Amino acid sequence: MPYLSPVAVRLGNADNRPGGAALRADGVSAGYRGTPVVHDASVRLTGGRVTVLIGPNGSGKSTLLRTMAALHPAMKGRIGFPDGARVSDLPPRELARRVTLLSQHRPTPGGVTVREVVAYGRHPHQPRWGGRDPEGPAIVERAMALTGVTALATRPVDGLSGGQLQRVWLASCLAQDTPLLLLDEPTTFLDLRYQVELLDIVRDLADRDGIAAGLVLHDLDQAAAIADEVVLLVGGRVAAAGPPAEVMTPELLSSAYGIQVDVHRDPDSGLLHTRARARHHRRLTTR
Length: 287
Hints:
- By secondary structure, the protein is an alpha/beta fold.
- Helix content is 31%, strand content 23%.
- It has ten helices and eleven strands.
- The chain has a six-stranded mixed sheet with strand order 5-6-7-3-8-9, sandwiched between helices.
- α4 (136-146) packs antiparallel against α5.
């Protein structure tokens, strides 16, 4: 089932504005069991813009994103919102109304349907002691439509493929209806079509609804295509940050990944494309 046109499907939060809904990490260090993985990193997420974290494995991309969502405590630095609130000081319910994270690994619940899992995203908006969530059902249906899982609504999630389940969890995040959306390697398990359409959804949410989006991506071409700003992490430190054309240069990428990376701009689309040179590159191109 194809995704519906993003123009026809809106989520409920009408308070997002381009340039607003920022989340800032200033001089943040974070890690595990007292060992830092991220060192003095500063990142800003801004309403209406998509920020993509790139870098080799082990460079701290996911750790930084999860720390910004308060899933890991920061060892140093500050992560906060424009109103002065820090993520570490907010009650979980309040934080969940401001930011949602699609993490790499989520458990697959048994005995529940797709619609029920998507509805989990409404938890922060539901009254503590029962009561109604008047906008909830419509937002859940829109989130399923946007991610193309409406036809799966009554199916148990433990019978879905990895790609289908990834789209269900994305729908749950969209149903949470926050002005900040964090996605940790969201294209994992997805075939090419759904990778492209998922990133289109993120781009549309930023452009149309003013959502601030932060993503971790491994595909450099996808990062260049979707990002307003790219943050290159190497060894847990921010090596460069800025527009894709400024960060995704042959020099910076080759140094970061330890392999020769060529970069060229498509003359028709204007998009950047990258290619890592393998040892057998010459043989492959002369066939």
